[in-house]
């Protein structure tokens, strides 16, 4: 089972390299990418400046694996990658990177929606929203 966690934010360099590695796969006609970014929400009049992500990594990686396999069963995909941050991710930084490839765009588009919803519903990942005054609240998964 693959470890899907990256320490800290997921960088644009990492995302770009992931895309570049797929350019040699000439059976791919479509890529679909979802990037989850930390928002600077306001909670009780205080701005969210970061989220500190934690997870039960073994259980979360198992959930990612099961979600991944179910997507391959449902959609005609060539390739798929899921990466989630752990640790501190500041507002404006990327915390979730889901990347699917297929021969045709419709499968990639439908798969990405399915994957993001499944990840939100089933992966045991927890986020502490850190507020500007250094207090925190546990994040609700929406």
How is the secondary structure organized here?
Blueprint: E1 5-7, H1 12-20, E2 30-37, E3 42-43, E4 46-55, H2 57-74, E5 77-90, E6 94-102, H3 105-122, E7 125-131, E8 136-138
Parallel strand pairs: 1-5
Antiparallel strand pairs: 2-6, 3-4, 4-5, 4-7, 5-6, 7-8
Helix pairs in contact: 2-3
Describe this structure in words.
Strands 1, 2, 3, 4, 5, 6, 7 and 8 form an 8-stranded mixed β-sheet that branches. The longest helix has 18 residues. β5 and β6 form a beta hairpin. It is elongated, with a radius of gyration of 16 Å. It is built from 3 helices and 8 strands; from the N terminus they run βαβββαββαββ. It has a single domain, classed as Alpha-Beta Complex (Aldehyde Oxidoreductase, domain 3). The protein is α+β, with helices and mostly antiparallel strands and 142 residues long. The model has no long low-confidence stretch (mean pLDDT 95). The two termini are 27 Å apart.
Mean pLDDT: 95
Would you state the CATH class?
Alpha Beta
| CATH architecture classification name | Alpha-Beta Complex
Largest sheet: number of strands, sense, barrel closure: 8 strands, mixed
């Amino acid at each position: 089972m693959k470890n899907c966690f990256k320490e800290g934010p997921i960088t644009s360099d990492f995302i770009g390299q992931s895309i570049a590695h797929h350019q040699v796969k000439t059976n791919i006609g479509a890529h679909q990418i979802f990037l989850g970014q930390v928002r600077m929400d306001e909670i009780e009049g205080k701005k969210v400046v970061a989220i500190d992500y934690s997870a039960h990594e073994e259980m979360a990686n198992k959930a990612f694996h099961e979600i991944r396999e179910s997507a391959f069963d449902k959609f005609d995909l060539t390739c798929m990658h899921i990466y989630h941050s752990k640790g501190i991710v500041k507002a404006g930084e990327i915390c979730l990177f889901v990347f699917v490839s297929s021969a045709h765009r419709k499968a990639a588009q439908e798969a990405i929606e399915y994957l993001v919803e499944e990840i939100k519903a089933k992966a045991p990942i927890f986020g502490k929203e850190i507020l500007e005054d250094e207090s925190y609240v546990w994040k609700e998964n929406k």
